Every structure is written in structure tokens, then in C-alpha cells.
Amino acid sequence: MAFISTQFVIFLAVVTVVHFLLPVRARWIWLLAASLFFYGLAEPIFLVQILAATGLSFWLGQRIEAVPDKKAKQKIMALGVVLLTANLVVFKYTPFLNETLRSILGMAHVEYPVPELQWLLPIGISFYTFQLISYLVDIFRGQQKAEREFGAFALYVTFFPKLVAGPIERAKNLLPQIHAHPAFDRTQAMLGLQLILWGVFKKVFVADRIAPFVNAIYDNPDAANGVQIAFATWLYAFQLYCDFSGYTDIALGIGLIFGYRLTQNFNRPYFATSIQDFWKRWHISLTSWLTDYIFTPITRQKTFKIKLFNLMLYAMFITFVVSGLWHGAAWTYVVWGALHGGYIVVSLLLQKRWNNFARTVKLVDRPNLYRALKITVTFSLVCFAYIFFRAPTMEDALHMVGSLGTGWGDFKANLLSVVGANRNEFFLALIGIAVVMGAEVLQGRINMREAINSRPVWMRWSLYYVGTLAVVLLGAFYGSQIAFIYFRF
Fold this sequence. Notes:
The protein is 73% helix and 0% strand. It is mainly alpha-helical. The protein folds into two domains: 6-183, no CATH class; 188-488, no CATH class. Helix 12 crosses helix 13. The longest helix has 38 residues, at 70-107. Pathway: Glycan biosynthesis; alginate biosynthesis.
């Protein structure tokens, strides 16, 4: 059930009304039932799978806490992590591994008898798997108590606003809120509605309107030149951001209506001044997870005797390769993750030289210019990596990278060719980008929610009506629905 659909609006309205008609201590049961219905509606068989993974983690968590011996705790925790990871690998990566093995053996002229494998990918499996792994590891580390109520734990895993595409919640954040049985809070609910409207605007007015221009180039990369590829990639950067952050805003907004504060996932990422800074602002819940459960354990290992700085560089690169693989079972995602890891490793190695250069040319004496330069460089590097993230195949991605130097002699004509005859739609897309980025500039200076809520009622509701009309009358509701990009991860 897509967030941007009439069915979901009806579903959310019914769930909300019934939720607040029920006694406070019974509401979590209704939310759990609604969440299971929401998930099972797409593929009922996968409901069995997520409940099995939830039940296993619930039981193993109690076992980890119950045994007194640390080595025994570690073995139980490792068993849980292996089983959860195996579940993810089987359903998400088996076709990818199968085709990779076929290619390797093919280059060695060895016949490979296993046919191409295709099966459905359980919705949200990457997100809930990471949630369950972090739960078990945190219990082993003594950072989390094992949950005793299965229903509350099941709601922590399956809570429908964040189930499909995050944020990746931690037990220490969401479980206490579930046990608190939050009552209705009018102010919080209004903030939630504001977030939902803003998220829908980003999705249907901006992201979905940009999509056709991006698809026209990326669906036929052989016919595109460097100007078209660069421009389409620049547009894709805003499509992806408005799509994913739009989903997150909707999820956070729904959570607030029910009294739950989900983890913030974005903080103006395209104003980052370095790749490190970008990953502190983009998909924050994933970055935090990878830091705690991949990067930190690698840097604390004692098997390999190497300098800590070098170990940190290796750990950083491995972490981002894992990030790429988490996003999708394809070499394009692996390369995308490796590029980001490489960016950070190189920047750390060259940091002193760059700082000396900036002082020599007196960039540090012009902080606004220096900041603008760093933002531009960071955004350009992020966009270059997006070529691999968006390209259908590795061959397409390499072809597009190789074509980046072409078409610049007739820059204007090639740029306009991306827009084509849809100039009105493109103009509206640019307006949408400007509105989103303008709001983020203001957010960096003032608290936008407090600023809006401090205005007179007529002014606030005028803004809400304008936003709603923009979504309904000018949103991309026409034609086929465009699913959220992160739904396939």
C-alpha cells in the first residue's frame, strides 16, 4: 500500500480514529494489528517471515541476557546475527551472487548449470534486519535490556510508518515510547500533519515531476552526451533527496500523530562541506548504525597489528562498501559505496596539505567563499557517485562516465534537449527545488516549525491550504504512480 494513494489515506484515517477511541493501554495492540495488516497486504507470505525473524530475535535477546557467561552471550548473539544476515542474503543477494558466479566461471570458459534466479524481495527486509541485529548486539554489550513483552517488541519491529523504508530505529529509542502508552497531544499531532504535508509536497510536486527528465537520459544512456548526463544526474540528486526525505517526513509525521518520535534521518545534506559532513546529514539512522556495528568493531579489533589511523582508513572504506551493498544487490551500488569510502579516505590522507593550501591562497580569510567552495565540491562528488547509484547496469554507468566529456561544445542545445517540450513541467520542478532548498536555508537560521506555529491562525492555515492545493492541483498525480525509490531497498 503506497503512502501516496487514496487507499493509504483511508487506512491512516481509520487507524487514527479507532486508535484514539480505544483505551490508552489498548492502543498499542491496535497499532500492531494495523502494522501487520499493512505489511501483509502486499505479500502475506512475507508476514510469516518478518514474524519469524521477530520471534527469533525476541527469544535470543532473552537468552543473551539470561546466561551469565560472556562467551556464551557472545555465541548466542553471533548465532542471531548470522541467522538474520543469512535471511537477508538468501532473499536479497542470492540472484546477484548467482549471476556473479556465472560471469566469473564464464570468463574461465567453465559451464555453469544453475539457471537465472528470480524471486520477490520482502519489503523493508534491509531495514528491519538491521533493527533486529542492533537489538541483539546492544543486549550483548549491556546497552539494552531484553524486552519481555512480545507484542511491544513486534510493534517496535513492524510499526508501519517506518517499516518499509526507515528510519532504522533503535530499541532504546522506540521501545520506551511504546511502553509509555502516549496519549493524544494536539500540538504534536499538528506538527505531524505539517511534516506529512511537507513530505507529500516533496514527493509529488518535486521528486515525481523530476523523474521523467531523469528517466529519459538514464533509460537510454547510449544516446546521451556528457551535458545531458551531467544535467540529468544533477536533477536526480534532487529527485532522490526529495523522494527519500519526503518519505521520511511522512513517516515521522505519522509517528507524531500517534505520539511516537522517530529518528530524524536528514539534516540539510546538500549543504554539507565535506563527504564526512554529508554522511552526518544524509540517511542519519543508517550512518549511525554502520558506525556502531561495522566501523567501530573493526577499529577495536586486535587481530591485525597496524597503526590506528591506517586501521580507521580501512574500516572507513569497508563500512562504505557494506553501505553500498546494503542498498542493493548490484555492482553499481558496491562501486557507489566504494566511491564514498574512497572520497573520505583520500580527504583524510590529504587533509593537512589541503589546509596548508587553503591558508596559502588565503581562502580561510574569506569564510563565506571558502564554505561555498567546499559545498560545491562536495555536492559535485556526491553527484558523480550518483551515476553508479542510478545507472541500470555497470556497463551503462561506465559508458556514462566515459561520455561526460562530450557535448560541451553545444552546451545550451544539449541542456535544453533534456527538458524537451515539457518546459512547463520543468519550470514547476525548478520552483519545487527552489522552495525545498530555500526552506532549508531558512532552517539553518531559524526553527521553521516554531516560526510557522508562532504565526496567526489565518496565516498558518493559508499556508496549509496553499501547500495542499499545490499538491492536489500541481502535484504529479496524473499518469502512473511512482513508487518511493527506497521501497526497493
